[in-house]
Write a structure and sequence with these properties.
Elements lengths: L1 H13 L5 H17 L3 H17 L3 H29 L1 H10 L5 H7 L2 H13 L6 H8 L1 H28 L6 H17 L9 H12 L4 H36 L22
């Protein structure tokens, strides 16, 4: 819902009329593609562009501009999130670094913030290539883009809070600093293996390894990984269900017989047909 709020702010800056309910549905479906399809990042963005056109009535350029604007600000918010995790979890990252013989791990995590920052700059620079008027409106609305960036930053924090809650459910009361250290360390690893649905394998091994190094029993670490994946599978199933329902609704609304077509207006003899 935070992600949807951030996109709605962008749509407002672009002067695009999009309902909150439709946008929420688009975000849920696109996240299902993101986590459940190979090459999830690309599949999710493509699904967003298509759904924004079909369910929100936007033109292709407008949809692409809105998706590019979201990518720009999500990546811009990711950079300070990584910096915050490296700062608050410096001691934990140092312990993990010594365990894997990489004592400079905290500095690597801190420096990794340059990657999403560079991607955000590239996304911002590429947006004018769409040649859409809404892009010009967005670049002028700096106060709204700042608000949207703050919302996306909060969404990153909620992702870390979710991990902390699941850890407590399985009896692992780690501090928020430890959770941020683990999450920021794994966030770029998940992005680096975009071809694997939801970072399958890399994310699971990363959680299990990091928790084991922090003294968490293997059984508890395995329970956490399974519960985390179960949550993602549930949202993937819900997103694909919304996608199928949306396609069937549009199919049922489409006239299938010529009887449903309105007859052309009659014209008087000698009157020329309309062009």
């Amino acid at each position: 819902m935070l992600d949807t709020t951030g996109v709605l702010l962008l749509a407002r800056a672009m002067e695009l009329v999009v309902s909150a309910g439709a946008m929420l549905g688009v975000r849920v479906v696109s996240e299902a593609f993101h986590f459940g399809a190979p090459g999830g990042a690309i599949a999710g963005e493509a699904a967003s562009i298509a759904l924004l056109g079909k369910r929100c009535g936007l033109e292709t350029r407008e949809s692409a501009a809105l998706v590019a604007g979201r990518k720009w600000l999500v990546m811009r918010a990711h950079a300070p999130y990584l910096a915050l995790g490296a700062w608050l979890g410096f001691d934990v990252l140092s312990r993990l670094g010594r365990a894997v013989h990489v004592p400079s791990l905290p500095w690597w995590v801190l420096g990794s913030g340059a990657v999403p920052l560079a991607l955000s700059i590239a996304a911002r620079a590429a947006m004018p290539l769409l040649r859409a008027e809404c892009v010009t409106r967005l670049t002028k609305a700096r106060h709204i883009t700042a608000m949207s960036s703050a919302v996306f930053f909060m969404a990153w924090l909620v992702e870390a809070a979710e991990t902390a809650i699941i850890l407590r459910i399985v009896g692992i009361p780690l501090s928020m600093a430890s959770v941020l250290a683990i999450e920021t360390g794994l966030s770029l690893a998940r992005s680096a293996v975009a071809f694997a649905p939801g970072g399958l394998g890399v994310q699971d091994l990363g959680y299990a390894t990091a928790l084991g190094m922090l003294g968490v029993p293997h059984e508890s670490a395995a329970a956490f990984v399974l519960l985390k994946r179960a949550k993602e599978i549930a949202w993937i199933a819900f997103g694909f269900l919304l996608f199928v329902i949306g396609r069937r609704s549009r199919s049922d609304a489409t006239p299938r017989h010529p009887d449903h077509l309105e007859a052309p207006p009659s014209r008087a003899p000698g009157q020329p047909a309309a062009a």
